[in-house]
Amino acid sequence: MKRTTIVTAISLALTGAAPLYAEPAPASQKNAKPAIDQSKATGTPATPVAPKSFVPMEPEGAIQKANAYFNSASSMTGDFVQISPDGTRSEGKIYVQRPGKLRFEYNPPATLEVVADGLSVAVHDRKTATKDVYFISQTPLKFLLKDQIDLSRDVKVIEVNTTPDTVSILVEDKATFGGTSQIKLIFDSATFALKQWQVTDPQGYETLVSLFNIDLSKKPDPRLFQLTQERISNTNN
Predict the structure, then answer these.
(1) pTM score, two decimals?
(2) The dihedral of CA 89, 93, 96, 101: what is its sign?
(3) What pLDDT, on a 0 to 100 scale, did the predictor assign at position 231?
Protein backbone atom coordinates (compact mmCIF):
# COMPACT_ATOMS: atom_id res chain seq x y z
CA MET A 1 0.00 0.00 0.00
CA LYS A 2 1.32 3.47 -0.89
CA ARG A 3 2.33 5.79 1.91
CA THR A 4 0.23 8.53 0.30
CA THR A 5 -2.83 6.39 0.92
CA ILE A 6 -1.91 5.99 4.58
CA VAL A 7 -1.31 9.72 4.99
CA THR A 8 -4.63 10.56 3.36
CA ALA A 9 -6.52 7.89 5.25
CA ILE A 10 -5.35 8.88 8.69
CA SER A 11 -5.74 12.59 8.01
CA LEU A 12 -9.26 12.30 6.69
CA ALA A 13 -11.49 11.51 9.61
CA LEU A 14 -9.70 13.32 12.37
CA THR A 15 -11.50 16.65 12.28
CA GLY A 16 -15.24 17.22 12.56
CA ALA A 17 -16.40 19.84 10.09
CA ALA A 18 -19.66 21.66 10.57
CA PRO A 19 -21.63 22.33 7.36
CA LEU A 20 -21.91 25.92 6.21
CA TYR A 21 -25.43 27.33 6.22
CA ALA A 22 -27.34 30.55 5.75
CA GLU A 23 -29.12 32.04 8.75
CA PRO A 24 -32.92 32.14 8.18
CA ALA A 25 -34.52 35.56 8.05
CA PRO A 26 -36.20 36.67 11.32
CA ALA A 27 -39.96 36.25 11.38
CA SER A 28 -40.38 40.00 11.71
CA GLN A 29 -38.70 40.47 8.33
CA LYS A 30 -40.53 37.79 6.35
CA ASN A 31 -43.60 39.95 5.71
CA ALA A 32 -41.84 43.29 5.72
CA LYS A 33 -42.42 45.63 2.77
CA PRO A 34 -39.46 46.23 0.48
CA ALA A 35 -37.50 49.37 1.19
CA ILE A 36 -38.15 52.34 -1.08
CA ASP A 37 -35.27 53.40 -3.30
CA GLN A 38 -34.92 57.04 -2.25
CA SER A 39 -32.88 57.86 -5.34
CA LYS A 40 -35.89 56.97 -7.54
CA ALA A 41 -38.36 58.73 -5.25
CA THR A 42 -36.44 62.01 -5.12
CA GLY A 43 -34.62 61.90 -8.44
CA THR A 44 -31.24 62.24 -6.75
CA PRO A 45 -28.51 59.63 -7.25
CA ALA A 46 -27.85 57.25 -4.35
CA THR A 47 -24.57 57.70 -2.47
CA PRO A 48 -22.32 54.69 -3.09
CA VAL A 49 -21.37 52.69 0.00
CA ALA A 50 -17.64 52.16 0.41
CA PRO A 51 -16.67 48.49 0.83
CA LYS A 52 -15.35 47.48 4.23
CA SER A 53 -11.59 47.15 4.35
CA PHE A 54 -10.26 43.65 4.95
CA VAL A 55 -8.46 43.14 8.27
CA PRO A 56 -6.43 39.90 8.49
CA MET A 57 -6.97 37.78 11.58
CA GLU A 58 -4.12 37.68 14.07
CA PRO A 59 -2.33 34.27 14.02
CA GLU A 60 -2.87 33.69 17.74
CA GLY A 61 -6.57 34.41 17.39
CA ALA A 62 -6.87 32.01 14.45
CA ILE A 63 -5.14 29.22 16.37
CA GLN A 64 -7.41 29.76 19.38
CA LYS A 65 -10.50 29.58 17.14
CA ALA A 66 -9.21 26.37 15.55
CA ASN A 67 -8.64 24.80 18.97
CA ALA A 68 -12.13 25.82 20.10
CA TYR A 69 -13.66 24.35 16.94
CA PHE A 70 -11.91 20.99 17.26
CA ASN A 71 -12.64 20.72 21.00
CA SER A 72 -16.32 21.63 20.61
CA ALA A 73 -17.36 18.05 19.76
CA SER A 74 -15.88 14.62 20.46
CA SER A 75 -17.82 12.67 17.81
CA MET A 76 -18.54 13.02 14.12
CA THR A 77 -20.21 11.21 11.25
CA GLY A 78 -20.41 12.35 7.65
CA ASP A 79 -19.18 12.11 4.08
CA PHE A 80 -15.88 12.98 2.42
CA VAL A 81 -14.51 13.71 -1.03
CA GLN A 82 -10.80 13.14 -1.63
CA ILE A 83 -8.65 14.31 -4.54
CA SER A 84 -5.46 12.22 -4.69
CA PRO A 85 -2.08 13.40 -6.05
CA ASP A 86 -2.83 11.80 -9.45
CA GLY A 87 -6.19 13.60 -9.66
CA THR A 88 -8.30 10.57 -8.75
CA ARG A 89 -11.56 11.48 -6.98
CA SER A 90 -12.85 9.20 -4.20
CA GLU A 91 -15.82 9.42 -1.85
CA GLY A 92 -16.93 7.65 1.30
CA LYS A 93 -18.20 7.75 4.88
CA ILE A 94 -16.28 8.84 7.96
CA TYR A 95 -16.80 8.19 11.68
CA VAL A 96 -14.82 9.70 14.58
CA GLN A 97 -14.98 9.24 18.34
CA ARG A 98 -12.28 11.13 20.23
CA PRO A 99 -10.03 10.30 21.85
CA GLY A 100 -8.30 7.90 19.52
CA LYS A 101 -11.01 6.24 17.42
CA LEU A 102 -11.86 6.63 13.76
CA ARG A 103 -13.16 4.73 10.79
CA PHE A 104 -13.72 5.62 7.18
CA GLU A 105 -14.87 3.62 4.23
CA TYR A 106 -14.33 4.37 0.55
CA ASN A 107 -17.24 3.88 -1.84
CA PRO A 108 -16.77 1.48 -4.80
CA PRO A 109 -14.79 1.15 -6.97
CA ALA A 110 -12.26 1.91 -4.19
CA THR A 111 -11.79 -1.02 -1.81
CA LEU A 112 -10.21 0.59 1.25
CA GLU A 113 -11.33 1.03 4.83
CA VAL A 114 -9.31 2.46 7.72
CA VAL A 115 -10.01 1.78 11.40
CA ALA A 116 -8.33 3.14 14.56
CA ASP A 117 -9.28 1.68 17.94
CA GLY A 118 -7.40 4.14 20.16
CA LEU A 119 -3.99 2.43 19.96
CA SER A 120 -3.47 1.20 16.41
CA VAL A 121 -4.60 2.05 12.88
CA ALA A 122 -5.43 -0.71 10.39
CA VAL A 123 -5.55 0.00 6.65
CA HIS A 124 -7.58 -2.79 5.03
CA ASP A 125 -7.82 -3.40 1.29
CA ARG A 126 -10.87 -5.57 0.62
CA LYS A 127 -9.75 -6.34 -2.95
CA THR A 128 -6.37 -7.82 -2.02
CA ALA A 129 -7.46 -9.04 1.42
CA THR A 130 -4.43 -7.33 2.98
CA LYS A 131 -4.25 -5.32 6.18
CA ASP A 132 -1.40 -3.03 7.28
CA VAL A 133 -1.32 -2.02 10.95
CA TYR A 134 0.44 1.03 12.40
CA PHE A 135 0.69 2.74 15.76
CA ILE A 136 -1.35 5.95 15.91
CA SER A 137 1.85 7.77 16.86
CA GLN A 138 3.20 6.99 13.36
CA THR A 139 0.33 8.67 11.54
CA PRO A 140 -0.22 12.29 10.45
CA LEU A 141 -2.82 14.33 12.30
CA LYS A 142 -2.60 12.00 15.29
CA PHE A 143 -2.81 15.12 17.47
CA LEU A 144 -6.40 15.63 16.31
CA LEU A 145 -7.42 12.34 17.95
CA LYS A 146 -6.45 13.66 21.37
CA ASP A 147 -9.04 14.37 24.02
CA GLN A 148 -8.04 18.05 24.12
CA ILE A 149 -6.34 19.70 21.15
CA ASP A 150 -3.85 22.58 21.29
CA LEU A 151 -2.18 23.23 17.92
CA SER A 152 0.56 25.43 19.38
CA ARG A 153 1.58 22.68 21.79
CA ASP A 154 0.90 19.50 19.79
CA VAL A 155 2.53 20.40 16.46
CA LYS A 156 4.70 23.06 14.88
CA VAL A 157 2.63 25.87 13.36
CA ILE A 158 4.42 27.02 10.19
CA GLU A 159 2.19 29.88 9.09
CA VAL A 160 -1.31 31.34 9.31
CA ASN A 161 -2.87 33.09 6.30
CA THR A 162 -6.21 34.88 6.08
CA THR A 163 -8.28 36.13 3.14
CA PRO A 164 -11.79 37.62 3.11
CA ASP A 165 -13.17 34.07 2.65
CA THR A 166 -10.78 31.65 4.36
CA VAL A 167 -8.30 31.18 7.17
CA SER A 168 -5.58 28.58 6.62
CA ILE A 169 -3.23 27.14 9.25
CA LEU A 170 -0.21 25.17 8.05
CA VAL A 171 1.26 22.73 10.59
CA GLU A 172 4.15 20.28 10.48
CA ASP A 173 4.52 16.83 12.04
CA LYS A 174 8.03 15.34 12.00
CA ALA A 175 7.12 12.00 13.62
CA THR A 176 4.96 10.47 10.88
CA PHE A 177 5.69 7.17 9.11
CA GLY A 178 8.32 7.87 6.45
CA GLY A 179 9.34 11.35 7.60
CA THR A 180 7.82 14.82 7.96
CA SER A 181 4.27 15.61 6.83
CA GLN A 182 2.61 19.01 6.48
CA ILE A 183 -1.11 19.61 6.91
CA LYS A 184 -2.92 22.78 5.82
CA LEU A 185 -6.25 23.25 7.62
CA ILE A 186 -8.64 25.55 5.74
CA PHE A 187 -11.52 27.23 7.61
CA ASP A 188 -14.39 29.48 6.57
CA SER A 189 -13.45 32.96 7.78
CA ALA A 190 -17.01 33.86 8.87
CA THR A 191 -18.10 30.69 10.71
CA PHE A 192 -14.66 29.11 11.28
CA ALA A 193 -16.04 25.75 10.20
CA LEU A 194 -13.40 23.49 8.68
CA LYS A 195 -13.97 23.39 4.91
CA GLN A 196 -11.12 21.19 3.73
CA TRP A 197 -7.50 20.31 4.33
CA GLN A 198 -4.46 19.48 2.26
CA VAL A 199 -1.89 16.89 3.30
CA THR A 200 1.66 16.91 1.90
CA ASP A 201 3.35 13.59 2.64
CA PRO A 202 7.11 13.04 3.20
CA GLN A 203 7.61 12.48 -0.56
CA GLY A 204 5.93 15.80 -1.42
CA TYR A 205 2.66 14.36 -2.78
CA GLU A 206 -0.44 16.44 -2.01
CA THR A 207 -3.94 15.18 -1.22
CA LEU A 208 -6.98 17.43 -0.80
CA VAL A 209 -9.92 16.39 1.39
CA SER A 210 -13.33 18.04 1.81
CA LEU A 211 -16.11 17.10 4.28
CA PHE A 212 -19.90 17.25 3.80
CA ASN A 213 -23.15 16.35 5.59
CA ILE A 214 -21.40 16.35 8.95
CA ASP A 215 -23.28 15.45 12.14
CA LEU A 216 -21.42 16.40 15.33
CA SER A 217 -24.16 15.27 17.69
CA LYS A 218 -24.55 11.61 16.74
CA LYS A 219 -22.24 9.09 18.42
CA PRO A 220 -21.00 6.33 16.08
CA ASP A 221 -21.58 2.70 16.97
CA PRO A 222 -18.56 1.58 19.11
CA ARG A 223 -18.34 -1.63 17.06
CA LEU A 224 -17.18 0.42 14.07
CA PHE A 225 -13.80 0.92 15.77
CA GLN A 226 -13.02 -2.67 16.72
CA LEU A 227 -9.83 -4.34 15.48
CA THR A 228 -9.02 -8.06 15.52
CA GLN A 229 -6.19 -9.88 17.26
CA GLU A 230 -4.29 -9.27 14.04
CA ARG A 231 -3.45 -5.81 15.37
CA ILE A 232 -1.36 -7.17 18.22
CA SER A 233 0.63 -9.64 16.15
CA ASN A 234 1.36 -7.16 13.36
CA THR A 235 2.37 -4.20 15.53
CA ASN A 236 4.74 -6.39 17.53
CA ASN A 237 6.59 -7.64 14.45
Answers:
(1) 0.72
(2) negative
(3) 44
